[in-house]
Amino acid sequence: MKSKFASLILAFALAGTAPAAQAQDSTNRVSANTAWSVFVEENPKECWAVSTPKETVNTRDGRPVSVRRGAILMMVSWRPEKNIAGEVYFTGGYPFKPGEPVELTIGSEKFQLFTKGEDAWPASPEEDAKIIAAMKRGAEAVVVAYSKRGTRTEDTFNLLGFTAAVEDAAKRCGG
Question: Which CATH class is domain 2-172?
Protein backbone atom coordinates (compact mmCIF):
# COMPACT_ATOMS: atom_id res chain seq x y z
CA MET A 1 0.00 0.00 0.00
CA LYS A 2 2.81 2.39 0.85
CA SER A 3 3.88 2.73 -2.79
CA LYS A 4 0.32 3.69 -3.76
CA PHE A 5 0.47 6.67 -1.44
CA ALA A 6 4.08 7.74 -2.03
CA SER A 7 3.09 11.07 -3.60
CA LEU A 8 0.62 11.77 -0.79
CA ILE A 9 3.17 10.97 1.90
CA LEU A 10 5.74 13.17 0.18
CA ALA A 11 3.22 16.02 -0.10
CA PHE A 12 2.35 15.77 3.61
CA ALA A 13 6.01 15.51 4.62
CA LEU A 14 6.96 18.59 2.63
CA ALA A 15 3.92 20.59 3.66
CA GLY A 16 4.00 19.99 7.41
CA THR A 17 0.73 19.52 9.24
CA ALA A 18 -1.30 22.57 8.23
CA PRO A 19 -4.21 21.59 5.96
CA ALA A 20 -3.81 24.75 3.86
CA ALA A 21 -0.17 23.94 3.24
CA GLN A 22 -1.05 20.36 2.31
CA ALA A 23 -3.41 21.58 -0.38
CA GLN A 24 -0.66 23.50 -2.20
CA ASP A 25 1.54 20.42 -2.58
CA SER A 26 -0.98 17.85 -3.82
CA THR A 27 -2.94 17.84 -7.02
CA ASN A 28 -5.34 15.03 -6.12
CA ARG A 29 -6.86 16.48 -2.95
CA VAL A 30 -10.58 16.91 -3.54
CA SER A 31 -11.83 18.13 -0.17
CA ALA A 32 -10.84 18.99 3.38
CA ASN A 33 -13.04 18.38 6.40
CA THR A 34 -11.28 20.20 9.25
CA ALA A 35 -8.52 17.82 10.42
CA TRP A 36 -9.18 15.31 7.61
CA SER A 37 -8.66 15.59 3.85
CA VAL A 38 -9.94 13.44 0.98
CA PHE A 39 -7.75 12.43 -1.96
CA VAL A 40 -8.69 10.61 -5.17
CA GLU A 41 -6.55 8.86 -7.79
CA GLU A 42 -8.21 7.96 -11.06
CA ASN A 43 -6.04 5.21 -12.57
CA PRO A 44 -6.52 2.87 -10.83
CA LYS A 45 -9.40 4.38 -8.89
CA GLU A 46 -8.46 4.94 -5.24
CA CYS A 47 -9.93 7.23 -2.60
CA TRP A 48 -8.75 7.93 0.90
CA ALA A 49 -9.36 10.13 3.92
CA VAL A 50 -6.16 11.17 5.68
CA SER A 51 -4.90 13.23 8.60
CA THR A 52 -1.67 14.15 10.33
CA PRO A 53 -1.35 14.14 14.13
CA LYS A 54 -2.27 17.22 16.15
CA GLU A 55 0.32 16.21 18.75
CA THR A 56 3.35 13.93 18.82
CA VAL A 57 5.30 12.91 21.93
CA ASN A 58 8.53 10.90 21.66
CA THR A 59 10.09 9.38 24.79
CA ARG A 60 12.92 7.04 25.72
CA ASP A 61 13.23 5.64 29.24
CA GLY A 62 10.28 7.85 30.24
CA ARG A 63 11.97 11.10 29.17
CA PRO A 64 11.05 13.27 26.17
CA VAL A 65 13.54 13.00 23.31
CA SER A 66 13.97 14.73 20.01
CA VAL A 67 13.81 12.29 17.10
CA ARG A 68 13.71 12.55 13.36
CA ARG A 69 10.65 10.95 11.78
CA GLY A 70 9.23 10.85 8.30
CA ALA A 71 5.57 11.47 7.49
CA ILE A 72 3.10 10.45 10.21
CA LEU A 73 -0.32 9.69 8.75
CA MET A 74 -3.58 7.96 9.64
CA MET A 75 -5.79 7.10 6.69
CA VAL A 76 -8.74 5.05 5.53
CA SER A 77 -8.73 3.94 1.89
CA TRP A 78 -10.99 2.49 -0.79
CA ARG A 79 -9.56 0.60 -3.77
CA PRO A 80 -12.49 -0.79 -5.77
CA GLU A 81 -10.25 -2.58 -8.29
CA LYS A 82 -8.86 -4.68 -5.43
CA ASN A 83 -12.22 -4.99 -3.62
CA ILE A 84 -10.92 -2.98 -0.65
CA ALA A 85 -13.38 -0.74 1.15
CA GLY A 86 -12.53 1.13 4.34
CA GLU A 87 -9.01 -0.11 5.06
CA VAL A 88 -7.40 1.63 8.05
CA TYR A 89 -3.68 2.40 7.72
CA PHE A 90 -1.07 4.16 9.86
CA THR A 91 2.49 5.11 8.99
CA GLY A 92 4.70 6.26 11.83
CA GLY A 93 7.62 7.79 9.97
CA TYR A 94 10.16 5.22 11.24
CA PRO A 95 10.59 1.41 11.24
CA PHE A 96 8.55 -0.14 14.03
CA LYS A 97 10.12 -2.54 16.52
CA PRO A 98 9.62 -6.04 15.09
CA GLY A 99 7.11 -8.13 17.00
CA GLU A 100 5.76 -5.12 18.91
CA PRO A 101 2.17 -4.28 17.91
CA VAL A 102 1.01 -0.71 17.48
CA GLU A 103 -1.77 0.24 19.87
CA LEU A 104 -4.62 2.46 18.72
CA THR A 105 -6.90 3.93 21.39
CA ILE A 106 -10.17 5.71 20.62
CA GLY A 107 -12.04 6.70 23.76
CA SER A 108 -12.10 3.59 25.95
CA GLU A 109 -11.64 1.20 22.99
CA LYS A 110 -8.21 -0.28 22.23
CA PHE A 111 -7.08 -1.94 19.02
CA GLN A 112 -3.85 -3.62 17.97
CA LEU A 113 -2.36 -3.06 14.54
CA PHE A 114 0.17 -5.40 12.97
CA THR A 115 3.30 -3.86 11.49
CA LYS A 116 5.66 -4.18 8.58
CA GLY A 117 8.48 -1.67 8.33
CA GLU A 118 6.97 1.80 8.91
CA ASP A 119 3.38 0.71 8.26
CA ALA A 120 0.59 -0.67 10.47
CA TRP A 121 -2.88 -2.12 9.72
CA PRO A 122 -5.67 -3.95 11.53
CA ALA A 123 -5.70 -7.74 11.13
CA SER A 124 -8.97 -7.97 9.16
CA PRO A 125 -11.69 -6.04 7.35
CA GLU A 126 -13.94 -6.69 10.36
CA GLU A 127 -11.40 -4.95 12.61
CA ASP A 128 -11.20 -2.06 10.10
CA ALA A 129 -14.98 -1.63 10.41
CA LYS A 130 -14.81 -1.63 14.23
CA ILE A 131 -12.05 1.01 14.19
CA ILE A 132 -13.92 3.22 11.71
CA ALA A 133 -17.08 3.01 13.83
CA ALA A 134 -15.10 3.98 16.94
CA MET A 135 -13.43 6.86 15.08
CA LYS A 136 -16.83 8.17 13.99
CA ARG A 137 -17.94 8.24 17.64
CA GLY A 138 -14.66 9.51 19.06
CA ALA A 139 -12.99 12.88 19.52
CA GLU A 140 -9.40 11.73 19.08
CA ALA A 141 -7.36 8.65 18.23
CA VAL A 142 -4.05 7.95 19.99
CA VAL A 143 -1.45 5.69 18.39
CA VAL A 144 1.37 4.32 20.57
CA ALA A 145 4.26 2.49 18.97
CA TYR A 146 7.93 1.64 19.52
CA SER A 147 10.79 2.15 17.12
CA LYS A 148 13.54 -0.37 16.45
CA ARG A 149 15.74 1.82 18.68
CA GLY A 150 13.27 1.63 21.58
CA THR A 151 11.75 5.10 21.30
CA ARG A 152 8.12 5.23 22.40
CA THR A 153 5.99 7.43 20.15
CA GLU A 154 2.52 8.69 20.93
CA ASP A 155 0.64 10.39 18.08
CA THR A 156 -2.74 12.01 18.73
CA PHE A 157 -5.12 12.54 15.81
CA ASN A 158 -8.08 14.92 15.96
CA LEU A 159 -11.23 13.14 14.70
CA LEU A 160 -13.11 16.36 13.92
CA GLY A 161 -14.33 15.95 10.35
CA PHE A 162 -13.48 12.23 10.20
CA THR A 163 -17.04 11.06 9.50
CA ALA A 164 -17.57 13.54 6.67
CA ALA A 165 -14.18 12.68 5.14
CA VAL A 166 -14.65 8.88 5.18
CA GLU A 167 -18.19 9.16 3.85
CA ASP A 168 -16.96 11.46 1.05
CA ALA A 169 -14.08 9.11 0.15
CA ALA A 170 -16.36 6.07 0.17
CA LYS A 171 -18.91 7.81 -2.05
CA ARG A 172 -16.24 8.89 -4.54
CA CYS A 173 -15.10 5.28 -4.89
CA GLY A 174 -18.58 3.81 -5.15
CA GLY A 175 -18.72 2.59 -1.55
Answer: mainly beta
